[in-house]
Design a protein that fits this description.
Layout: H1 2-14, H2 22-62, H3 69-98, H4 104-130, H5 141-171, H6 176-203, H7 213-219, H8 222-234, H9 239-259, H10 267-306, E1 314-315, H11 316-329, E2 337-345, H12 348-354, H13 356-373, E3 378-383, E4 386-392, H14 396-411, E5 417-423, H15 431-444, E6 453-455, H16 461-479, E7 483-492, E8 498-509, E9 513-515, H17 517-526, H18 530-550, E10 558-562, H19 564-569, H20 572-582, E11 590-595, H21 596-599, H22 604-615, E12 619-625, H23 631-637, E13 642-645, H24 658-672, E14 676-679, H25 685-693, E15 698-700, H26 710-718
Parallel strand pairs: 1-3, 5-6, 8-10, 10-11, 11-12, 12-13, 13-14, 14-15
Antiparallel strand pairs: 2-4, 2-5, 3-4, 7-8, 7-15, 8-9
The structure holds ligand C2E and magnesium ion (2 copies).
């Protein structure tokens, strides 16, 4: 049973009963159109040659005594003329079809060549009335059917070319159905021509006593066979269609020959005739299979180039290409259109909680829901959980609502929401820039839980330019030294002597002036470029430390900030290792600061890297402790050298009585876990006194110094405004409670 099924499947496949994808269908159709070009060209050359031959052989010698020139010409070359005309029409149609764009000239030529068919039918009818009917020599029914079929095919051929031309003019796209009709009619005209000429050859000469009898017998059906090979091998339909078509044509021709009484059709010829049919059928099957295999391979390649690797939507590069192509052809294409940048906010929860496979399936389903909410619109995935949709402005709110409702229905009580940024492109604007603007609008509502949709407006242009500038000029800014570190002093809690400094990035730009981390860190994180900046800061810190050591100036340990994404984009340990080796710096002089929110996601990669750094002897400092959600878990999972208590705790130090209790508890907790403490944002003496009292190891804040240029920092040390501790490398516990 299984075997039977396999054989059945194999045959279905072989005969082309399987439905092909749209791409494969188009590929086969285009291949047929191209074949028609070769076929038409060859036919034109052959027929011109035939006309010349006929003219020299029959028309020229008989011209002087001919009763009517028209009749003479028609009796010898009308068929060839018809065939040339049909081939020219086919050639022009096929060339125009394959052109990407139809110009007005193409439109007119196509209409003319289509219309010519009708003119030719008229001429043929005239010929049959005025001149001699080509099949007058036999009263065969099949023969006159052939004549009528030529008329009909010619009429449909012309009508299909004209119909196609008007269709393309109106809708600006090719009509596959009409092109198939055109090719089929052309093939039919070729076959009928083959039948007619083949049959006429067969019918002359009539007597076996004629010396040319045997010679003509050989060539009698050659024309028919030539045409059949043309049609069968160049134009490939589904094998079962080819088989039906070839068999009926063969039977038709066979009947035609058999019914001719003047000549005998031998049994042996019949066998040859059918062997030929079978071979031809096999050839068509094999060509078809070969073309389908090529088409599928091509389709796969194109799919890889145009589609997203995971989800069945375009990639953004292809979406841009489609939009650019369309807007080139149609100046108003971008009117009333809008780009949507879609972000599934907090999507990583799904990956973390349900695993990556579930995450992938979630995105696939989301893409399907997007296709349903935005039918007929261009959709692409940009990366991760980001999608781009190019749609009409009308009704966009309703569609976004639909997608939002879908998302709400599938995320349950997970803290995941839909964020959509919109941008209406200007006519001459590049697609990538429009997408950037939509994304920019989307980022604006990143932290606003209740807002789903936000549209870019022109007032945001200035901010957007700055955002783009930061992304585009980072490399140059690093290279030219516009990016540097400022140093903020860190002091011991008990004697306020200097025990280190934090390196904080600053960008001093020739156009925008002074840029603080708030201006560029989130932008670079989002653009996944932050690792470049941080690598530059490591370099800056290590290099200047080496310069200071070489100049016999005192140095203190420096803590450097790292973002979560740094650990995805670079090997942090390798980067730091390389620099300390290059400048020969002691590991103990570099501290690694990682924010609590970065660690709370428990990414494998990050955990591994942090542990590797720790095991290698680097001090790991937990930044902004208490500002996120899962602080205590983080303390459980990692061994930090220093916990930096977030400056938020000191915000209402004097008014909120709970503040002090919380700070005291945190410090006791850290002590119990054998971690040291540092409180950030110390601005007043009373805060510093209290922190000393409760045993906070280190203090950092404006009270001891704002972040400053390296020269200023060293200047303050020289002037003893900042006094370096004798215990720079170990905790100063002299006065600890
Ligand atoms: P952070 O690491 O928590 O740095 C402390 C921030 O608090 C600094 O802001 C500093 O200027 C500010 N600050 C220090 N003392 C006081 C004070 O007494 N009162 C007040 N109101 N503020 C104080 P900054 O330099 O603007 O940096 C902001 C954040 O940007 C940093 O927070 C850090 O997360 C990030 N960042 C800075 N530089 C870098 C860097 O090189 N790489 C990475 N990845 N992030 C950086
Ligand atoms: Mg920090
Ligand atoms: Mg901090």
């Amino acid at each position: 049973m299984e075997a039977l099924k396999k054989v059945g499947n194999f045959l279905l496949n072989l005969l082309g009963f399987r439905v092909n994808s749209r791409y494969v269908k188009k590929y086969l159709n285009d291949a047929n159109i191209r074949s028609s070009i070769y076929m038409a060209s060859i036919v034109i050359i052959l027929e011109v040659w035939m006309i010349i031959r006929q003219t020299i052989k029959y028309i020229a010698p008989g011209w002087a005594n001919a009763p009517s020139g028209f009749n003479l010409i028609f009796s010898y070359i009308s068929l060839y003329l018809l065939f040339i005309m049909a081939s020219i029409s086919m050639l022009i149609f096929a060339i125009n079809y394959l052109k990407k764009k139809q110009t007005n000239k193409d439109f007119i030529t196509n209409l003319v060549v289509g219309g010519l068919s009708f003119f030719w039918i008229l001429l043929l009818i005239l010929e049959n009335h005025v001149g001699t009917l080509r099949f007058n020599n036999s009263n065969n029914v099949i023969a006159s059917t052939t004549t009528i079929l030529v008329y009909v095919s010619l009429a449909i051929f012309g009508a299909a070319i004209c119909g196609y031309t008007l269709y393309r003019h109106k809708f600006n796209k090719n009509s596959t159905v009409l092109s198939i009709v055109v090719i089929s009619c052309f093939a039919l005209i070729c076959l009928l021509f083959g039948i007619k000429v083949g049959y006429s050859d067969f019918a002359h000469p009539t007597s076996p006593t004629d010396p040319k009898y045997n010679v003509d017998k050989i060539k009698m059906i050659t024309c028919f066979l030539t045409m059949i090979i043309f049609v069968a091998c160049l134009l490939i339909w589904k094998p079962y269609i080819s088989i039906i078509m070839l068999t009926s044509i063969f039977i038709f021709f066979l009947e035609l020959l058999k019914s001719y009484e003047g000549r005998e059709f031998l049994d042996g010829d019949q066998v040859n005739y059918f062997t030929f049919l079978i071979s031809l059928t096999m050839v068509t099957v094999s060509i078809y299979q070969q073309r389908v295999a090529e088409a599928k391979k091509d389709e796969k390649l194109i799919h890889t180039a145009q589609y997203d690797g995971l989800i069945d939507v375009f990639n953004t590069r292809h979406l841009s290409e489609l939009i650019e192509d369309n807007s080139k052809e149609n100046i108003n294409y971008k009117d009333n259109k809008i780009f949507l940048f879609i972000n599934i906010f907090n999507f990583k929860i799904i990956n973390n909680q349900r695993g990556f496979d579930a995450g992938d399936n979630f995105l696939k389903d989301f893409a399907k829901a997007a296709q349903k909410a935005f039918p007929n619109d261009l959709i692409s995935r940009q990366a991760d959980d980001h999608f781009i949709i190019y749609t009409n402005v009308d009704g966009v709110d309703k569609k976004i609502d639909e997608l939002n409702n879908y998302l709400k229905s599938v995320v349950g009580n997970l803290f995941i929401s839909l964020k959509v940024g919109g941008y209406r492109p200007r006519p001459d604007e590049k697609t990538n820039r429009s997408i950037d603007k939509a994304r920019y609008a989307c980022n604006k509502i990143h932290n606003k839980f209740e807002v789903t949709y936000f549209e870019y407006d022109e007032k945001m242009d200035k901010e957007f330019e700055k955002y783009q500038y930061i992304i585009n000029s980072l490399d140059e800014a690093i290279e030219k030294g516009y990016v540097q570190a400022f140093y903020q002093p860190v002091v011991w809690g008990n004697d306020k002597t200097l025990c280190g400094a934090e390196a904080l990035a600053r960008w001093i730009d020739p156009i925008y002036g002074f840029l603080s981390p708030a201006d560029f860190i989130p932008v670079l994180e989002e653009a996944r470029l932050i690792h470049k900046l941080d690598a530059a800061i490591i370099e800056y810190v290590c290099k200047n430390m080496r310069i200071a050591i070489d100049a016999n100036r005192p140095v203190v340990p420096i803590s450097i900030n790292f973002s979560r994404i740094d650990f995805e984009l670079m090997d942090v340990k390798k980067e730091v290792d390389e620099r300390i080796k290059k400048y020969n710096i002691d590991k103990q002089y570099i501290h690694i600061e990682i924010t609590e929110s970065a660690l709370s996601e428990k990414m494998d990669l990050l955990t591994k890297q942090v542990n590797a750094l720790k095991n290698d002897g680097y001090a790991i400092w937990l930044d902004d402790f208490g500002s996120g959600y899962s602080s205590l878990n983080v303390l459980k999972d990692f061994d930090f050298d220093v916990v930096k208590i977030d400056m938020e705790f000191l915000k209402n130090f004097d008014t909120n009585s709970k503040t002090k209790d919380i700070l005291e508890c945190i410090i006791t907790l850290a002590d119990r876990l054998h971690m040291m403490t540092l409180t950030e944002g110390v601005e007043t003496k009373s805060q510093a006194d209290f922190l000393k009292e409760i045993g906070c190891g280190r203090l950092q804040g404006y009270l001891f110094g704002k972040p400053m240029k390296l020269e200023d920092f060293e200047d303050k040390i020289n002037k003893k405004e900042l006094v370096i501790s004798n215990h720079v490398l170990q905790p100063n516990t002299d006065n600890k409670k």
